[in-house]
Automatic annotation (TrEMBL):
<keyword id="KW-0472">Membrane</keyword>
<keyword id="KW-0813">Transport</keyword>
<keyword id="KW-0812">Transmembrane</keyword>
<comment type="function">
    <text>Required for the insertion and/or proper folding and/or complex formation of integral membrane proteins into the membrane. Involved in integration of membrane proteins that insert both dependently and independently of the Sec translocase complex, as well as at least some lipoproteins. Aids folding of multispanning membrane proteins.</text>
</comment>
<dbReference type="Pfam" id="PF14849">
    <property type="entry name" value="YidC_periplas"/>
</dbReference>
<keyword id="KW-0143">Chaperone</keyword>
<feature type="transmembrane region" description="Helical">
    <location>
        <begin position="500"/>
        <end position="520"/>
    </location>
</feature>
<dbReference type="InterPro" id="IPR028053">
    <property type="entry name" value="Membr_insert_YidC_N"/>
</dbReference>
<dbReference type="GO" id="GO:0005886">
    <property type="term" value="C:plasma membrane"/>
</dbReference>
<dbReference type="InterPro" id="IPR047196">
    <property type="entry name" value="YidC_ALB_C"/>
</dbReference>
<feature type="domain" description="Membrane insertase YidC N-terminal">
    <location>
        <begin position="82"/>
        <end position="360"/>
    </location>
</feature>
<comment type="similarity">
    <text>Belongs to the OXA1/ALB3/YidC family. Type 1 subfamily.</text>
</comment>
<dbReference type="InterPro" id="IPR001708">
    <property type="entry name" value="YidC/ALB3/OXA1/COX18"/>
</dbReference>
<dbReference type="InterPro" id="IPR028055">
    <property type="entry name" value="YidC/Oxa/ALB_C"/>
</dbReference>
<dbReference type="GO" id="GO:0032977">
    <property type="term" value="F:membrane insertase activity"/>
</dbReference>
<feature type="transmembrane region" description="Helical">
    <location>
        <begin position="372"/>
        <end position="392"/>
    </location>
</feature>
<comment type="subunit">
    <text>Interacts with the Sec translocase complex via SecD. Specifically interacts with transmembrane segments of nascent integral membrane proteins during membrane integration.</text>
</comment>
């Protein structure tokens, strides 16, 4: 077997590894225990007085061990007034029972491509779906009992404001009847950031000590598929250290593992593929970051140092909640405003040093071109241009090896069965003609992390969700919707659903073009004389065609463009070195016949 065929086999093996790694997906998650009824339907859990205590040894403020942290209650929903939320990006309401932000939809995003489909719901109150909400409160430490601070179901009075807008905050008020007056001022900006200012006025004759906190609670697991390459669950930053915790791992965390003492900057919350709800303390504020699971309820907490409220004094504490879409520009603007490393809430993956600049370039190209599909093609051209020096060296080496083929055949005849003499002669031949047989592998090796990174970008970034290209390609984050099974829409029947085992045979136009582009690229060289190699290479384009048929259209567009650019580069470089590929002859099989002869 000559070195060129070794390189081709290596390329095949590496390519298969790339596809197989990313093709393995986790099955849909099971519902958390206790959150389904007999028919398997999700039922909302609302509060019944369950107090969960941890032992915060080593608390950030030196509080004695055994101090209770934020309470977790589950009782029947309380009928209470609601405060409407209306912003350019959000609609919903705040429940005055508990002062929860528990009803939130994103006005810029629909569930499907149909503009009449429902808006994406981010936060949900009890009684509709599995609950998902943010709340803030106080922990009584001294001078007041737990019953004298507002709880999860405390009904607040609307003191100021009727509708929460970017120009009109809302003030909620609750008096405990024992001399403490609590207020909660909620404001929101034009995007997705809420500012919550909690205050307590002490009209008693004694000092009290309280501890403010914020929580995001999720009752049960989200109704989404879990993917091998995507993190969904807890995401938190603690003094520059990013941590991601899957939902399945939360019940197994010890108290020490679930709690992090943050000295200055950080945030904690839940992330989905495209959306996120995160507690963001004010910059420079120390806090305890907690992530845990209690009876099927997943929660994240930010617990702040205790505050002493003297008699006749009013004390306030400010924090933020991000609840919205993980838009790169929006999150980056919040990061520039002081939220430490907030852009890392997007799951950039292991190759973050590639995915970040690749997405930044793709985003810029889309701003110039105005179409993500064409931007992906231009991005491919740029990547190929950057790698061109290596590609040139590789293809030039392959062309020289073609020229040396007659001499190598003579060398094989002279060496016979003497493998050592053959290897020595081949090395001398390479050295004399300044040919490096391994140079063809380097572009392939570099292409693998680039492929990983681009796939990650296309899969996880919101900017490609529902992004159209041309004609029937209306969502670059989804597979090609056309299908050969109904002649691409000419026949009056539907194609298999993506969850069906037969979906792999429902090839669209793009996967077929991908197979053709790989097959055409192969025809730059004659088929290898070895029957096994010849069979592998003959089947490889069509196997890849089926394997990539269910991949995102944006990724398939990239691969097609990459194949065609590679074909053009290789053809021109070979011609410049005096070797003219006989493409038509190779298609007709003349090359294989000559090689066999």
């Amino acid at each position: 077997m000559d070195d060129q065929n070794k390189n081709l086999i290596l390329a095949t093996a590496l390519s298969f590894i790339v596809i197989l790694i990313w093709f393995v997906l986790f099955p849909p998650p099971e519902q958390a225990p206790g959150l389904t009824n007999a028919e398997g339907e999700v039922v909302a859990q609302d509060d019944t007085a369950l107090r969960d205590e941890m032992s915060p040894d080593g608390a950030i403020d030196g509080t004695a061990a055994g101090t209770p942290v934020a309470t977790l209650e589950q009782d029947a929903p309380v009928e209470a007034a609601r405060v409407a939320i209306e912003t350019p990006r959000l609609v919903g309401s705040i429940n005055t029972a508990g002062g929860r932000i528990d009803d939130l939809k994103l006005t810029a995003y629909h569930e499907t491509l149909d503009p009449d489909s429902p808006l994406v719901r981010l936060l949900s109150p009890g009684g509709e779906e599995a609950q998902y909400y943010a709340l803030h409160g106080w922990i009584a430490l001294s001078g007041a009992s737990a019953d004298e601070v507002p709880g999860d179901s405390t009904v607040w009075e609307i003191e100021e404001g009727e509708t929460l807008t970017p120009d009109s905050p809302v003030v909620l008020r609750w008096e405990n009847g024992a001399g403490l007056v609590f207020r909660k001022t909620i404001a929101v900006d034009d995007n997705y950031l809420f500012t919550v200012t909690q205050s307590v006025e002490n009209t008693t004759g004694d000092a009290v000590e309280l501890r403010p906190y914020g929580q995001v609670r999720r009752h049960g697991l989200p109704d989404s598929r879990q993917f091998f390459i995507l993190h969904e669950g807890v995401v938190r930053m603690a003094d520059g250290e990013l941590e991601e915790i899957d939902y399945d791992d939360l019940p197994d965390l010890t108290a020490e593992e679930s709690r992090i003492e943050v000295a200055e900057d950080g945030w904690v919350g839940f992330t989905d593929k495209y959306w996120m709800t995160t507690l963001v303390p004010a910059s420079g504020t120390p806090f305890r970051s907690v992530a845990r699971e209690v009876n099927g309820i997943y929660l994240t907490e930010s617990i702040y140092p205790p505050v002493a409220v003297a008699a006749g004094e009013t004390v306030s504490a400010e924090s933020h909640v991000f609840a919205g879409a993980k838009e790169w520009e929006t999150i980056r603007a919040y990061e520039a405003a002081g939220i430490d490393r907030f852009v890392d809430s997007i799951d950039w993956g292991w190759f973050f040093f590639l995915t970040k600049p690749i997405f930044a370039l793709l985003h810029w190209l889309n701003g110039v071109i105005g179409n993500m599909g064409w931007s992906i093609i231009v991005l491919t051209l740029i990547i190929k241009a950057v790698l061109f020096p290596l590609a040139y060296k590789s293809y030039a080496s392959m062309a020289k090896m073609k020229e040396l083929q007659p001499e190598m055949e003579k060398l094989k005849e002279r060496a016979g069965d003497d493998r050592q003499a053959l290897q020595k002669g081949m090395m001398e031949l390479y050295k004399t003609n300044k040919v490096n047989p391994a140079s063809g592998c380097l572009p392939i090796l570099l292409q693998i992390p680039i492929f990983f990174s681009l796939y990650k970008v296309i899969f996880v970034t919101l900017e490609l969700r529902h992004a159209p290209w041309i004609g029937w390609i209306r969502d670059l984050s989804a597979p090609d919707p056309s299908s050969i099974l109904n002649l691409f829409g000419l026949l009056p029947w539907d194609t298999p659903d993506p969850g069906s085992i037969f979906f792999i045979f429902s090839l669209g136009v793009l996967p077929i073009l991908l197979g053709i582009s790989m097959w055409l690229q192969q025809k730059l060289n004659p088929a290898p004389p070895d029957p096994t190699q010849r069979m592998i290479f003959a089947w490889m384009p069509w196997v890849f065609m089926f394997m990539l048929g269910s991949f995102a259209s944006g990724l398939v567009i990239y691969w097609i463009a990459n194949n065609m650019i590679t074909f053009t580069q290789q053809y021109l470089i070979m011609r410049s070195h005096g070797y003219k590929p006989d493409i038509l002859g190779n298609i007709r099989g003349k090359g294989a016949a000559a090689a066999k002869k």
